[in-house]
Amino acid sequence: MNYDLAISRGVRLNPNIQYVVNPDNLPRPKAFRQSNDILVFGAWLSVDFAALLGMPAQK
Question: How many CA atoms does the CB half-sphere of 12 hold within 13 Å?
């Protein structure tokens, strides 16, 4: 699924949630124990400066 929220004209916020099951420890080869499952939250902010300035959209 893909969700985004139009904050204002030309500005969109896209939240991101990931659940990683049994992550790999390759970057840490000397780790004493295996990592647990991970729940990650993030966000992506997209800004269209042309739309903010009122310029016409290119096709």
Answer: 8
